[in-house]
Design a protein that fits this description.
Blueprint: E1 4-8, H1 12-23, E2 28-32, H2 38-47, H3 50-53, E3 59-62, E4 73-76, H4 88-109, E5 114-117, H5 122-133, E6 140-142, H6 145-160, E7 167-168, E8 171-172, E9 180-181, E10 187-188, E11 191-192, H7 199-210, H8 212-220, H9 227-241, E12 246-255, E13 261-272, E14 275-279, H10 286-309
Parallel strand pairs: 1-2, 1-4, 2-3, 4-5, 5-6
Antiparallel strand pairs: 7-10, 8-9, 10-11, 12-13, 13-14
The protein binds adenosine-5-diphosphoribose.
Length: 310
């Protein structure tokens, strides 16, 4: 039977997720939004590209959560972007309420979905979904590390002027300024970039990775990145639905790993049919541990803040 993938939020990221999911023939796609007509229009438009891009899936647009019944995977992209002058706490409260209500609606009609959260502030939003859904920790995760690592990989490729195909990278931590790109684990055909670049070059690429989201916002002026974020979420969907057992950086619930508990945090995980099937523990240097702890502290504070708000 075809898998059912629900995408909540028919905005920039949600539309990209729906499109790539359909084009990769991963299953039937349901696109849902609060705005009437938009998910229906985009779904029909996407369906009409099916004979050109050759996919078999049915794409449905809706405002009714009944149509999401029995979803295998739900990707949550609903939310509002941060407006000029708005505090982080205000955004946390607004998107926290949206993500809470979306999760309640999803859980009314799907008893055991895997949920991938994309809405920001990411680490806090995944925490909300876990708490509200009551799903086991392997079935609730956030998309951040795949995107951050893709940016790091891109910048390495541009710097070394070599194919991106052979480049791999790992980024740990929260999805924000405190994220921890890991040069030791960034490789080109197995060769660490620490052997291929100077310290200064690496520092520059690490900084650019940390500011990757802001760099796109600065260029677009309106809205934020959506093509690479959408592609990153679909990479996770594919790893799960095709039971690939891929090791990818994802936002997972820590229970003692890396010395932290009860926080959603970016770490390498194994993604397969059961969602997060394992968390990989890396041996960190003192410097890396300090950076990871600083990021975890920030995430913990944000999670405590959202718990007080909701
Ligand atoms: N239920 C369903 N959809 C909702 C709800 C809700 N309660 N509230 C808002 N939405 C929808 C909006 O109507 C809009 O179509 O979420 C969509 C968000 O789309 P965009 O504004 O285009 O934002 P986008 O760029 O897609 O980003 C979505 O992903 O990367 C993150 O930071 C980003 O949190 C943001 C999210």
């Amino acid at each position: 039977m075809r898998k059912k993938i629900t995408v909540v939020g028919a905005g920039q990221v949600g539309t990209t997720v729906a499109q790539l999911t359909a084009y990769k023939n991963l299953g039937n796609v349901v696109l849902i939004d609060i705005v009437e007509g938009v998910p229906q229009g985009k779904a029909l438009d996407l369906q009409e590209s099916g004979c050109l891009q050759v996919f078999d899936g049915i794409v449905t647009g809706t405002n009714d959560y009944k149509d999401t019944a029995n979803s295998d995977i739900v990707v949550i992209t609903a939310g509002v972007p941060r407006k000029p002058g708005q505090s982080r706490t205000d955004l946390l409260a607004i998107n926290g309420k949206i993500v809470k209500s979306v999760t309640e609606e999803i859980m009314k009609y799907s008893s055991n979905p895997i949920i991938i959260v994309v809405s920001n502030p990411l680490d806090a939003m995944v925490h909300v979904v876990k708490k509200v859904s009551g799903l086991p920790k392997n079935r609730v995760m956030g998309m951040a590390g795949v995107l951050d690592a893709a940016r790091f990989r891109t910048f390495i490729s541009l710097e070394l002027q070599c194919s991106m195909v052979d480049i791999d990278a790992m980024v740990l931590g929260g999805h924000g300024d405190s994220m921890v790109p890991m040069p030791r684990y960034a490789t080109v055909s197995g060769i660490s970039i620490t052997d291929l670049m100077s310290k200064e070059q690496i520092e520059r690429l690490v900084d650019r990775t940390r500011n990757g989201g802001a760099e796109i916002v600065g260029l677009l002026k309106k809205g934020s990145a959506f093509l690479a974020p959408g592609a990153s979420a679909v990479k996770m969907v594919e790893a799960i639905l095709r039971d690939k057992k891929q090791i990818l950086p994802c936002t997972a619930l820590l229970e003692g790993e890396y010395g932290w508990s009860d926080i959603y945090f970016g770490v390498p995980v194994k993604l397969g049919h059961n969602g997060i099937e394992a968390i990989i523990q890396l041996q960190l240097t003192d410097e890396e541990k300090t950076a990871v702890d600083a990021s975890a502290k920030e995430v913990k504070e944000m999670i405590e803040e959202i718990d007080k708000i909701l």
